[in-house]
Write a structure and sequence with these properties.
The complex is a heterodimer. By secondary structure, chain A is mainly beta. In chain A, 0% of the residues lie in helices and 50% in strands. The radius of gyration of chain A is 13 Å and the shape is globular. In chain A, a hairpin with a 3-residue loop joins strand 4 and strand 5. Chain B is an all-beta fold. Helix content of chain B is 0%, strand content 50%. In chain B, strands 2, 5, 6, 10, 11 and 12 form a six-stranded mixed sheet that branches. In chain B, strands 3-9-8-7 form a four-stranded antiparallel sheet, with no helix packed on it. Chain B is globular and about 45 Å long. The chains are: A mainly beta, B mainly beta. The interface between A and B is medium-sized, with 25 and 25 residues.
Chain lengths: 117, 115
């Protein structure tokens, strides 16, 4: 049982390049989330998926797209990276069985550190 | 909109000393309240949470937190800090009757532990 896994761990991009951050969970959770963490800003929600087949914008969705590929996987895509997207990205999941999503404990992956030059 | 304030950006305590990390929230009704810890280079891990009932909540690693409605606070405490407690601590709140309104995190308090 690996919990929440993220790939890659580190990535350096040039401005304008695209990339996809991968996230998978093996806990059979319904809900998944993408956050970014910047110094002094805490965690800010980019997108979330309350259940398989649905996605919704969070606080800072501009410049990102997501895909809930199946129940296990939730990917985050940067179509044209910008230096402002330099950050640490965390994926999380929660069980959320028929209840309000945010009542649930969220389980976090180890993060992806992204540098955009 | 709800908000979470952690007034202390960085706190340094001596090993064995007591610890209190402050968290205040702004919301009309009692929200769901959480404390998460992030060790260096790691993701976040839940320490404890408050949904209802006893306002003193026990968590993992010897931590506890007390919900005080009158002060809109949910402060985290530990009676004796260990060097391994050095980490960043985040308070978070979720609206109680909101459907899927996102969890809101505070900006975090970094804890340093000295010998």
């Amino acid at each position: 049982n690996a919990g929440v896994t993220q790939t890659p761990k580190f990535q350096v991009l040039k401005t304008g390049q695209s990339m996809t951050l991968q996230c998978a969970q093996d806990m059979n959770h319904n809900s998944m989330y993408w956050y970014r963490q910047d110094p002094g800003m805490g965690l800010r929600l980019i997108y979330y998926s309350a259940s398989e087949g649905t996605t919704d914008k969070g606080e800072v969705p501009n410049g990102y797209n997501v895909s809930r590929l199946n129940k296990r996987e939730f990917s985050l895509r940067l179509e044209s990276a910008a230096p402002s997207q330099t950050s640490v990205y965390f994926c999380a999941s929660s069980e959320a069985r028929g209840r309000t999503t945010y009542q649930e404990t969220q389980y976090f992956g180890p993060g992806t550190r992204l540098l955009v030059l | 909109a709800q908000s979470v304030t952690q007034p202390d950006i960085h706190i340094t305590v001596s090993e064995g000393a007591s610890l209190e990390l402050r968290c205040n929230y702004s919301y009309g009704a009692t929200p769901y309240l959480f404390w998460y810890v992030q060790s260096p280079g790691q993701g976040l891990q839940l320490l404890l949470k408050y949904f209802s009932g006893d306002t003193l909540v026990q968590g993992i690693k010897g931590f506890e937190a007390e919900f005080k409605r009158s002060q809109s606070s949910f402060n985290l405490r530990k009676p004796s800090v260990h060097w391994s407690d050095a980490a960043e601590y985040f308070c978070a709140v979720a609206e109680r009757f909101s459907g899927n309104t996102p969890l809101v995190f505070g900006k975090g308090t970094r804890l340093s532990v000295i010998a």
